[in-house]
Each structure stands twice: as C-alpha cells, then as structure tokens.
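hiii, so i know i said id send this last week but things got crazy w the move. better late than never?? heres the sequnce for the chain we talked about at the cafe, plus the structure i predicted for it. fair warning i was half asleep when i ran it
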Amino acid sequence: MLSAQQLETYITQNLVCDHIKVLGDDGTHFEAVIVSPEFVGKSMVQQHQRVYAALGDRMRAEIHALSMRTLTPEAWQKLNNKN
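okay and structure toks below
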C-alpha cells in the first residue's frame, strides 16, 4: 500500500516543486497541492499531465485516484497573501 509521503517522494523525484502536500489514508486515494515553476505558462490540464508524467506507470498501477490542485509559485504566493 502506498503512503502519502511515498507519493510526495515519487512526484518530487521527477518534478521541481516549491511546495507539495499530499494527503491520503487508504493507500489508493489521494489529494495533493503541488506548486511548481514548471507549471508557468501551462493550462491546468497541461499541469496535471506534467504530474501524471512525473508519476509514470504508478498512476495505472498503484494510485486509484489523485485529486490535485496545481499552482505556479506566483499563484501560490497570491493565495497565501490573501489569507
């Protein structure tokens, strides 16, 4: 069974992340917030595709569901300045 920490590690091994937080407690369903400079200039679909590419075959084999919020560093900064 996969842990949230393992999933974070898999993503950060293949994607530059300024911030990442993965939650999940059943080993197959996860929620993630991922902030990466690699998302700059990309649509949300392209950002998600980049995360899927970072996970490779794990998306088909180990992970049943991944709900994610992807943000550029600038968007993350704006979000945090509002709070």
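btw The longest strand covers residues 29-35. thought thatd interest u
miss u guys!!
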